[in-house]
Design brief:
The chain has about 130 residues and is mainly beta. The protein has one domain. It is about 10% helix and about 40% strand. The strands form three sheets. Strands 1-4-7-10-13-16 form a six-stranded parallel sheet, with no helix packed on it. Strands 2-5-8-11-14-17 form a six-stranded parallel sheet, with no helix packed on it. Strands 3-6-9-12-15-18 form a six-stranded parallel sheet.
C-alpha cells in the first residue's frame, strides 16, 4: 500500500530524545536536532528540529523555534512552529507564528498569533506603500 507523502504524521509528544529535569536552572540557548521535553527553568532561546514540550512546572523566558511545540507550563517569549498546542495549564506570553494552533479551555495566550497563510495572503503596509511609489 502506497503511503501519501503529504500526510502529516500523528504527533506523539510522549516520545522524546532528551528530557531536562525540573531541578535544572538553565541560562543560555539550546539547539538540538531531536525532540526534547523541558521541565526546569530557563532563560534563553530554544531551536529544536523536532518537537519541544514545555513541562507542567517549566518556566521558559526566551523564544522557541521547533517543529511542533506543546505547552503545559509557562513560556514568556515568541514561538515559531508548525503546530502549537497550549494545554489547559499552559500559559504563553508572546507572539506565535504557526501553521496551526490548538488552545485548550483554561489555557492562556497573551499576544498575537499568525498563521503562515496570513503572511502570504495579507501584504504588509510596507508592500502597499512600495507599490504606490
Amino acid at each position: 500500500m502506497k503511503r501519501d507523502s503529504n500526510a502529516k504524521k500523528k504527533l506523539n509528544y510522549e516520545q522524546v530524545d532528551s528530557i531536562v529535569s525540573g531541578e535544572v536552572v538553565f541560562i543560555g540557548d539550546i539547539t538540538s536536532g531531536n525532540s526534547m521535553r523541558f521541565e526546569g527553568n530557563m532563560r534563553g532561546n530554544v531551536n529544536v528540529s523536532g518537537n519541544f514540550i514545555v513541562g507542567r512546572n517549566a518556566l521558559i523566558t526566551g523564544n522557541i523555534k521547533a517543529n511542533n511545540v506543546h505547552v503545559i507550563g509557562t513560556v514568556d517569549g515568541n514561538i515559531d512552529c508548525e503546530q502549537l498546542k497550549i494545554l489547559s495549564t499552559g500559559k504563553v506570553t508572546g507572539d506565535a507564528t504557526v501553521d496551526s494552533i490548538i488552545i485548550d479551555e483554561g489555557a492562556f495566550l497573551v499576544g498575537k498569533y499568525r498563521t503562515r497563510e496570513d503572511k502570504s495572503d495579507n501584504p504588509d503596509i510596507e508592500d502597499i506603500l512600495n507599490a504606490i511609489d
